[in-house]
Model the fold of this input.
Amino acid sequence: DTAVSQTPKYLVTQMGNDKSIKCEQNLGHDTMYWYKQDSKKFLKIMFSYNNKELIINETVPNRFSPKSPDKAHLNLHINSLELGDSAVYFCASSLVGGEEQFFGPGTRLTVL
Amino acid sequence: GNSVTQMEGPVTLSEEAFLTINCTYTATGYPSLFWYVQYPGEGLQLLLKATKADDKGSNKGFEATYRKETTSFHLEKGSVQVSDSAVYFCALYNQGGKLIFGQGTELSVKP
Done:
C-alpha cells in the first residue's frame, strides 16, 4: 500500500564513492521530484521529472544525476560523494500540474 | 522571487495549549499555500491547503487562512496534543511548478 517508497532508508558511505537512491510511486502520478533536506531541516527541490522528461533542474552539481526509467520510478545517482552531500533526500510525486505532492519516507545519507 | 518565512523554532508547549505558527510569503501572482507536517523519522505529509485569498484550510483541528493583504498563512490549533509534536513546513506553489518551503518550525508538546 506504500504510495511513495525509497530505498535505502539509511546510507553510510565514504567520501569519493558513487551511490544510488531509488524511488518508486504507485499512485499513477506523472511527475516526480527529488528534494534535499539539510541538517537544519531546510528543504529544497533538486529535480523534477514529468513522464520521464526532466522539467526542473535546480543549481545542483553535475555529480548528481537523476534517472527515470519509467514514470513510476525516479532514481538519484551521486558520483564522487562529498561530506557536504550528507543530508536526507526525499522523493515525491504528483499529478501533472498538481500542487499537492506526496512524499516518500526519506533516505538519510551520511558521507564519512 | 518567491519565498516563505516561518517563525523560528523550536516551539515548546504544554498539552492543550493554543498553537500559532506564523508564516508569511513573497510571491508574484496568487500562489496556492500549504502546510506540511513531518513527524519524527518520516516524510512530509500534507496537513492543509488554501488556493485563493480568504480561503481557510483545515484538518485534524489545525486551521490556516490565506490572507492576501498581509501575505500570511498562519497555522493555528486550539488545543495541541503530545502527538502533534513534529516539524511544520509552510509552502507555496509557484507558477514554475515548484513548491517553495519555509525553513520549518519544530513543535514539541509536553504532557
